[in-house]
Structures are given as C-alpha cells and as structure tokens.
Amino acid sequence: MTLGALLPTVNAALNATSAALLFLGWRAIRAGRRDLHRALMLSACGSSVLFLAGYFTRIALTGTHRYPGSGAAKAVYLAVLLSHTLLAAATLPLALRTLYLSLGQRFAEHRRVARWAFPVWIYVSVTGVVVYVMLYRL
User: Is Membrane included in the keywords of this UniProt record (predicted)?
Assistant: First the structure.
C-alpha cells in the first residue's frame, strides 16, 4: 500500500484520537485535575499537528477527492464537509490562542476562549472522521 493510500486512514485515526483526548481533557478539568487536563490537551494538540502534517502530505501526493455518490447522500456529505471545512479554518487560531493563554497562566481568559474553542475543535475532529468514512468507506 502506498503512503498516499494509507494516509486517509492514518489521518482519520489522528482525528479520532484528538476528539477522544479533547473529551478526556474536558472531563479532567471538570473534575479539577489540572495536570491531567494539561497533559491531555497538549496530547490533543500533538495529535492535531500530526493530522495536519499528514493531511497536507496526502493532498500533495494524491490531490483532492470527489465524493463518488449522488443524491441525498452527496448532499449530506457536502453539508458535513462544508461545516467541517469552515470550522476547521477557525480551529487553528482558537486552539493556538487557548494554548497560548494557558501556557501564560492566564486561566480566566483561557476559560473564556476555551468555551468556544472546545466545541468547535471537537466538532471538527469528529466530522473529520465522518468525512473519511463517507468518502472512503461507504
């Protein structure tokens, strides 16, 4: 199997990992476990950075791919893809700002930004997996 053929599956796994780490990090901070929260969120950042590297590599190797279906399934796919793409563009600056504030120990500001960053980031991670399944597995 070529790298270009393997990367979509690897990227979906990285997206799923990011989503799981984000959820676990959210649970950790809700339980008052700051150190665990920090470790999980930094791991989610790492997983997302690896995803981005893999995604851009896959695009460079194989280009973009069209959805092979039609009708209602294609409409659903395009709606999910559009929302995923638009929110993915917002995720990077939101995640970076949240990370910056936390590393600077500006926790009140960090919480305000994280209230927006978390749901957007987790949505993008989950819909990334949905896009993969719809494009490569259905």
Answer: yes
